[in-house]
Amino acid sequence: MIVETKSAQFDSIALEGGATLTPVEVAYETYGALNHERSNAILITHAFTGDAHAAGVAHDSGKPGWWDNMIGPGKAFDTDRYFVICSNVLGGCRGTTGPASLNPATGKPYGMSFPVITIRDMVRLQKMLIDRLGIARLLCVAGGSMGGMQALEWASSYPEAVRCVIPIATTWRHSAQQIAFNEVGRQSIMADPDWNGGEYYENNKPPARGLAVARMVGHITYMSDESMREKFGRKLREKEKFGFDFGVDFEVESYLRYRGSQFVERFDANSYLYITKAEDYFDLTNGTGRLADAFRTVDTRFLVISFTSDWLYPSYQSQEIVRVLRRVNGDVAYCDLQSNYGHDAFLVDVGEQTELVRGFLDSTARIAVAA
Amino acid sequence: MIVETKSAQFDSIALEGGATLTPVEVAYETYGALNHERSNAILITHAFTGDAHAAGVAHDSGKPGWWDNMIGPGKAFDTDRYFVICSNVLGGCRGTTGPASLNPATGKPYGMSFPVITIRDMVRLQKMLIDRLGIARLLCVAGGSMGGMQALEWASSYPEAVRCVIPIATTWRHSAQQIAFNEVGRQSIMADPDWNGGEYYENNKPPARGLAVARMVGHITYMSDESMREKFGRKLREKEKFGFDFGVDFEVESYLRYRGSQFVERFDANSYLYITKAEDYFDLTNGTGRLADAFRTVDTRFLVISFTSDWLYPSYQSQEIVRVLRRVNGDVAYCDLQSNYGHDAFLVDVGEQTELVRGFLDSTARIAVAA
User: Do the Cβ atoms of B173 and A249 come within 8 Å?
Assistant: First the structure.
């Protein structure tokens, strides 16, 4: 499945913070075919550092999509049956308008003059794309981590436009600890002199060191204590005893340094700032804490999935969603999947997840046909 | 209890890595009085960023000691009864020889020419101090976190010189996740251009931004998800709605920034590098994984304490110690104390800990008299 990223342009989008972005572009990919009734479309929403390339093999780089183990013929999101769409989020750096995009008013990249955006803004732009594609009602919106926040926001903002949502390894609002980890990443980037107030595009000298450190922290939170022990333990890196210096001693150090430096090649530091901010602002209740209100008009079906070893988005956050949905007689299935992989489980430990998603989509599609 | 930090000098110390440090100085404080039999001495070992000022009020700064709630007349470590000693660790920056100390060979601060040290080296220097004070056998060595590693090392290296040890919220070897968090801190410091290969003393311009970010990560790991929720939640800082900018929005952001900048005033970045390295190298079994061997000659009594919400030094690591000690018929008491405070619990949630320590010291002292 060779795929190509497409692009859609819109004149403008009004943002939750009050600003208007003019114009706005969305990068997206599609897999499978839209049926005649336009009833088999599924929107996949990506996590923090993901992009529109969710599945298949990119025609240019040859790289597989980030959820290729879940999307494709015969897979959980079966492209023989469903029309699957994935778009890069607003504020991103992979084809959708973000801080690295040219500001038409100045002819220069926005940098920190880009307006602060929210999860709701990301979803609004996705809705514009779906409208453009002529889809009145999605069969499903599904995603993990920040993708799960978007799925929840879809159910809350556009319940009439989505038959079911699958929020995975996510939360209905960012906790103090989740905000804290994001703040560390932001401070690390902004502490790097090369960040230069967000203006590093012209001299092409991004805050590589600060961004790499931010990414290292991220990687720790994506794994579990146990998966790090299994993968690295105290194994030394290409040596038999300690170096008694500050070079690499342990495999885990080498892994983090590599992941940090690799990340700099593919991600924009300002997008890191804006997207983490959107996550931190995310609260489906707008600060009221009354989650039942967010789902008041819901006839959307929910499949909520969490993972036992995920300590970044712990299971109790998913269970809070499930508890409230049950209280308002929502149609909700929930599974806390056993996994050692921590938060990464939704990307790598997809066996049981596949079974759950496949069955849930199938039953939703049958209900849709009957309706 | 007004206290003053004292200092002891030694000609040299031979280090585990092969180097010899000449000369070496130790900063220490004492509280209470040594009895005639010299049998009531307790060594308190401090955590990563602690120092010799464990209790009382510093005569110069007026600041209370870092464990003043545990050490003093009538407290857990009762200074009416025991002679309590606390020294700053080797490699530290609070009076004991470390990378900021003058290298007599050059007349300049060691910086990164300071030799890499280990927990065993720290303990060796403590043993030299105890010998100097004329104490053949300590009643107890007690400490939390890295202090607990030192207590374990005492029991393993000098079992004849200590009647009991109290390792709290600690581990017998650093895990991949623990190494990973330390590595992030080190990379954050070394990414700061002001670190300058460790040579920042002469122009008095330390890597303040990198060190602050390292400290922020640390603070997240010291608290629990729950204690962060209770203390900060999603409370905004001096505003009623989001700023839609990159200033401070949340209380937790303000707290982390404040703690980060405050830390720079009192801690040396190179000491951060050396001490975290010592923690990461720490493995009581020297890589064999056979913990029973480390305790082979033990007739030392153990009181092992962990805290239910401590995810930085999780309870299972303490339980591994306890399990092995029981297998070799060691004299060990263990308690997993219920607390929401995370790793910080050993510093702040000291009610039950006080009862445990008091009773254990009392019974050990009675056994010592009977012996």
Answer: no
Residue B283 has its nearest CB partner, among A183, A187, A234, at A234
Q: Which of B76, B47, B38, B53 is nearest to B1 (CA)?
A: B53
State pLDDT tens for residues A229-268: 999 999 999 999 999 999 999 999 999 999 999 999 999 9
Identify the bridge partners of residue B113 per DSSP, sorted by sequence position: none
CA distance B30 to B79: 10
Q: How far is CA B302 from CA A138, B277, B357, B365, in A?
A: 62, 26, 11, 13
Active site residues of B: 145, 310, 343
Q: Would the pLDDT of A331 be above 80?
A: yes
* Tens-digit pLDDT profile for residues B85-109: 999 999 999 999 999 999 999 999 9
Q: How far is A252 from chain B (nearest CA, A)?
A: 6
Which numeric CATH code is attached to A178-277?
A: 1.10.1740.110
The segment(s) of chain A belonging to CATH 3.40.50.1820 are: 2-174+284-370
Q: Cβ(B174)–Cβ(B282) under 8 Å?
A: yes
A232 and B280 in contact by Cβ < 8 A? Answer: no
The verdict on domain B2-173+284-370 having CATH code 3.40.30.10 is no
- CATH number assigned to the domain covering A2-174+284-370: 3.40.50.1820
Q: What is the pLDDT of residue B80?
A: 98
Write out pLDDT tens, residues B302-339. 999 999 999 999 999 999 999 999 999 999 999 999 99
A240 touching chain B per CB within 8 A: no
| Residue A105 contacts B, CB cutoff 8 Å | no
Give every residue of chain B whose pLDDT is below 70, as ranges.
298
Q: CA of B234: which chain A residue's CA is closest?
A: A176
Chain B residues 324-343 with a CB less than 8 Å from chain A: none
How far, in whole angstroms, is CA B52 from its chain's centroid? Answer: 10
Tell me where in chain A the CATH 1.10.1740.110 domain(s) lie.
178-277
pTM: predicted TM-score of the whole model, two decimal places: 0.97
Q: Is A247 on the interface with B (CB under 8 A)?
A: no
Where, residue-wise, is CATH 3.40.50.1820 in chain B?
A: 2-173+284-370
